[in-house]
Every structure is written in structure tokens, then in C-alpha cells.
Specification:
It contains twelve helices and ten strands. By secondary structure, it is an alpha+beta fold.
């Protein structure tokens, strides 16, 4: 049955949660079904004195719901209804400037560093609030353009940066004073990232960088790059990599355009004898691989991919309710309803894995098993999700935003492209190896 509460057409809006609360204030607990999951131990005398309660509840706390309303109010005020971000907005100067301004406003509110320690420019808020914010941003398709700084760079700094680096870089990221691009993938080093060949060689107190990066999203827009380079060619390949903050305005840095299969622009980045100061090395020499993996684990541990899928499902539901074929609304067609139900199952699977992963993160489990599993599920389910959208919408779903005949103003076509270009951050095969 496609029905629910609170205006939600098919599910409750909150995660299943165990009632026990950890010292960190997080009430989301993993189910314990996967290897290594912990279980809370309650003394028999204490357990006997407690009234019996359901083991699982489907409700956010009042404080969490207040936070969700605050985030929604901000988005309602800052995202006009006539702004659409279905297409590649980085090539539209007006939309790009709007996206930068919007991200800056998020930074001014302190929300980029929402859960970071206050001494590094954060607000010190609990992890569940970060997930709620991510859900609401995904629900509105908010044009937040600080993902590399917020996720990869900040994650590495918090894990391995020196105190001086944390105090220097993290407040800048939190305010969106600097815009970061990613410098990991190379022409011959994608899924096998540890084979990268970009070199960083000491020269007095500086480093000289030579090499090439590819698929540099927003590289032509960014201020600095999160750069992985090989500092010890004789060490085992996972141990000879270091991380640098590279100023993209330096002599020797250049770009060429790369149009990807998803319809967006990325870049080839060329580094020719680029000299950077020694203090641009993040953390310790040779520990870059562990920093990258830890930052990816942390970013994957709190994810709102399910809200992205849910946004598309809501659009398709509305389309089916208002579109008539063969004399009746599409929503009444049992074949269409079956496809909608399958889409809802995909979204719900992703949602429950996201909440279990949040429980892992709250309890300090690294790597978060459910987060890695959620990445695999999302990557492998999204092509099927897009296929179902296409079967419901039909051939007109291939039309882009701006076409008068495009259903849902081109949202379906944008989803097709995004769903089949879902290798960013690692293919599903690589994610399966991580799980194993």
C-alpha cells in the first residue's frame, strides 16, 4: 500500500532506534546483525527495575524535530521555487553564483562545521543533526558546493592534521572561505588508486609537484586542491603516498576540459614543477593512504543518499497522480503501482542502512559496516531505479530541462545521467572489496 502519515505517501519519516543512549548523546544504535556490531549490556538488577518498552521506536526526539524544522525554514527562505538544479549548473554562470552564495550562507550559519569541535570553527552538535541536515538538503536538491572541503579535506585534517593545520584550515572550510577540488584520480589510477604516479619531491623547505590528475570536478572553479602524491617511490605503494593542500593559482598548474558521460564538465589537471611550501603537507609523510580511507569511511558513515532517491520518487508519484493515460490516472494502473512499490523498497532499504550506519558512527565503529554496505546498495540499485522511472515516464523522459515536453521539467533525464555515472568515490566492485 502506498500510504503513510505526515503527508508522506508511503513511509514513516523517522528511523528505527534503540532506546539506550550512549555517552555521546546518540540514541541511534545498530541492530547487531552484522559481524562486529556491539550490543549494550544492562545489569540484570537494572533491567528488572525498568518498565518494559518496545525495543525499537520510529520517532525522532522533539529536539531533533525542532532542528529539522529549522533547516527546512532556512531552505524555504533561501531556495526560490523557480531555481532548478537538475542540469549541470556549473556551466550556467547565474546558477553557479547562486550556488556559491547559498553555500556561503550555510557557512555563515556555522552549519558546514556543524559537528566539528568548536575550537576548529564548528558548532559541536551531535551526529544525528548532521544526518537530518543532509536529508533536508537532499530533499530540496540544495546546491551545496563544498563537498570536497566539507568531507574529504576536513575529514583528513580532523584525523591526521597538526593542531596548527586544524586551526588554520578548518575555520576557512567552515566559513566557505576556500573552495576545494579533489586531486586523487589519475589517467592510469582510478579504481586502483594506490598506483598513482604524481610525484612530490623535497627541495629544501618546499615540495616540487609533477604529474597529472583527471576527473577533477570543479577544478576550474576551486581555490585549492586536496592532492595525493607519491613521496617515496621505493616504499610499498600504499605507504609512499602523502596528502597536500595545493593552491591552484600557483605557476605550473593548468587545466583542460573533460566532458563526462553524465553530461557535466570535469577537468584534466596538469602539474608541472609546481612549488609549494613545506607546511602544505597535511599530516605525516607517507600516511596519505590511511588518511584517504579514513576520510572516505567517515563521509560514508553519515549519508543521505536515500533522500536523493526519495526526492525523485516524490516527483514520479506526483507525475503519476496528475497524468492520465487510457482514461485514468497513472497512479491507478496496477503495473505502474508495482513499479512505484519497487522504487519505494529501494529508497527504504537505503534509508534503513543510512540509519544503521549513523549508529555505527555514533558508537565509534570504524569502518562503519552499514555505511559501506549502503554505498554498494545505492550504486547498484540506482540504475534499476532509473530504469523504473523510464518505464513509468516513457520516451519523453529523455528530454532535458527547458523542453516544453519534458516531464517533471527534465528531472527524469537528469536522473538517468546521474544514475549511470555513479562510479564517483569508487565503483561498486571496489566497494564490495572494501566490505570483504
Amino acid at each position: 500500500m502506498l500510504g503513510g502519515t505526515d503527508g508522506e505517501p508511503w513511509r514513516a519519516s523517522a528511523p528505527p532506534r534503540r532506546r539506550n543512549r550512549t555517552a555521546g548523546g546518540c540514541i541511534y544504535q545498530p541492530s547487531g546483525r552484522h559481524p562486529g556490531a556491539g550490543r549494550a549490556t544492562i545489569p540484570a538488577s537494572t533491567a528488572a527495575a525498568r518498565p518494559r518498552r518496545p525495543a525499537v521506536e520510529f520517532a525522532f526526539s522533539a529536539e531533533e524535530e525542532r532542528w529539522r524544522r529549522e533547516v527546512r525554514a532556512f531552505l524555504d527562505a533561501e531556495l526560490p521555487a523557480d531555481k532548478e538544479f537538475n542540469h549541470e549548473f556549473t556551466e550556467d554562470e547565474e546558477l553557479w553564483e547562486f550556488a556559491r552564495e547559498f553555500t556561503g550562507k550555510v557557512g555563515k550559519k556555522g552549519w558546514i562545521g556543524l559537528t566539528w569541535p568548536r575550537e576548529y570553527g564548528g558548532l559541536g552538535r551531535p551526529l544525528p543533526e548532521r544526518l537530518i541536515m543532509a536529508e533536508e538538503f537532499a530533499r530540496r536538491d540544495a546546491p551545496f558546493v563544498n563537498m570536497i572541503g566539507y568531507g574529504l579535506a576536513a575529514g583528513t585534517l580532523l584525523i591526521g592534521g597538526t593542531e596548527e593545520q586544524k586551526h588554520r584550515f578548518l575555520p576557512e572550510i567552515a566559513r566557505f572561505d576556500t573552495f576545494w577540488a579533489e586531486g586523487l584520480t589519475e589517467p592510469g589510477s582510478g579504481s586502483d588508486l594506490a598506483s598513482l604516479t604524481t610525484r612530490a619531491v623535497r627541495d629544501g623547505g618546499d615540495w616540487i609537484i609533477n604529474g597529472q590528475k583527471t576527473y577533477t570536478t570543479w577544478g576550474h572553479r576551486a581555490d585549492v586542491m586536496y592532492l595525493a602524491a607519491r613521496t617515496d617511490p621505493d616504499a610499498p605503494r600504499h605507504r609512499g603516498i602523502s596528502i597536500f593542500c595545493l593552491d591552484l593559482s600557483l605557476p605550473g598548474v593548468s587545466f583542460s576540459r573533460l566532458d563526462n558521460l553524465g553530461g557535466g564538465r570535469q577537468n584534466h589537471t596538469y602539474l608541472d614543477d609546481v612549488r609549494i611550501p613545506g607546511d602544505m603537507l597535511i599530516g605525516e609523510v607517507g600516511k596519505g593512504w590511511s588518511y584517504i580511507m579514513s576520510a572516505f569511511y567517515a563521509a560514508g558513515g553519515i549519508s543521505a543518499r536515500h533522500s536523493e532517491s526519495r526526492r525523485m520518487l516524490d516527483k514520479v508519484l506526483a507525475y503519476c497522480e496528475t497524468t492520465v493515460r487510457r482514461g485514468r490516472p497513472l497512479i491507478e494502473d496496477p503495473v505502474v503501482r508495482s513499479k512505484l512499490a519497487e522504487m519505494a523498497m529501494i529508497v527504504e532499504t537505503e534509508r534503513l542502512l543510512a540509519y544503521e550506519s549513523l549508529g555505527d558512527a555514533c558508537n565509534g565503529r570504524t569502518p562503519p559496516f552499514a555505511g559501506a554496505l549502503g554505498q554498494v546498495v545505492h550504486k547498484e540499485n540506482q540504475p534499476r531505479f532509473a530504469q523504473l522511472v523510464g518505464q513509468i515516464v516513457g520516451p519523453l523522459g529523455q528530454l532535458r530541462t527547458g523542453s516544453r515536453w519534458a516531464p517533471m521539467d527534465g528531472a527524469a533525464e537528469a536522473w538517468y545521467r546521474a544514475s549511470y555515472a555513479n562510479h564517483a568515490g569508487g565503483t561498486s566492485q571496489v566497494k564490495r572489496m572494501v566490505l570483504a
